[in-house]
Design goal:
2-enoyl-CoA Hydratase, Chain A, domain 1; six-stranded mixed beta sheet; three-stranded parallel beta sheet; 17% strand; alpha/beta; 248 residues
Length: 248
């Protein structure tokens, strides 16, 4: 794999995002993640998965400069695959813990929302669904996952404001479950993974009861929301804003 680093230890797999400084998401990256998670789902020796990143970013979100050269049809194909990935993670048959080593922005935040548990480092790292700040919308699935975690009122504030939240502020809102330090992040994540994986059949039953109805609703509404998202993405004002975004 080019952008995903996989390791296993005592029944816990670690999936590490490693695409440049900011782990920006493009089609190849999303396909690698999806393939990796599908293989781990079928691996009887893996009881839980930790999703984390390299460097100061968990993920910046979409690789916007790259997508500016995509045709509309190719971009829709990418969005379909991305929303399919987070829907798959949302109902994944094993515990998935997001160990947020740094900034989790926009699409990166959506991946974190799909996990069963989120631990985030304190300090400079921020988490945000900030699409409104550059004139973009979000997806029905991302809204459903956010509301599942924080409730409707907090979801509205998060999406309308586009605020970049520290770990402490995100914990207060319910976006994440635990604040950690860079030194303890992976240790804390492994502890949670072990706890959630202790009774796999019971865990999966409860997870399905909690999340399957939400996922069914996500799937029903996603196609229409993707079309609306793409229309806004290619609108004159948003397109101008997107051209001003630089990532390195």
């Amino acid at each position: 794999m080019d952008f995903v680093r996989l390791s296993r230890n005592d029944g816990i797999a670690e999936v590490r995002l490693a695409r440049g400084k900011v782990n920006a998401l493009n089609q190849h990256f999303v396909e690698e993640m999806a393939g990796c998670f599908h293989r781990l789902a079928a691996d009887a020796d893996v009881n839980a998965v930790i999703l984390t990143g390299d460097g100061p970013f968990f993920s910046f979100g979409f690789d916007i400069p790259e997508f500016l050269s995509y045709s509309r049809e190719t971009f829709i194909e990418f969005v379909d695959r991305f929303t399919g990935l987070y829907t798959y993670l949302f109902t994944y048959p094993k515990p998935v813990i997001a160990a947020l080593n740094g900034h989790a922005i926009a699409g990166g935040c959506m991946l974190a929302l799909a996990c069963d548990y989120r631990i985030m480092v304190s300090g400079k790292a921020k988490i945000s669904l900030n699409e409104i700040t550059f004139g973009s919308s979000v997806f029905a699935g991302s809204v459903a996952m956010l509301k599942f975690l924080v409730g409707g009122k907090n979801a509205q504030a998060i999406l309308y404001d586009g605020t970049m939240y520290s770990a402490e502020a995100a914990s207060h809102l319910g976006i994440i479950e635990q604040v950690s330090s860079a030194d303890k992040l992976m240790e804390d994540a492994r502890q949670v993974a072990g706890r959630l994986a202790a009774n796999p059949g019971v865990f999966l039953s409860i997870k399905s009861l909690l999340r399957s109805p939400v996922a069914e609703d996500m799937t029903k509404k996603e196609r229409e929301s993707v079309q609306e998202f793409v229309n806004i993405w290619y609108s004159e004002n948003t397109w101008r804003n997107l051209h001003a975004i630089k990532i390195h």
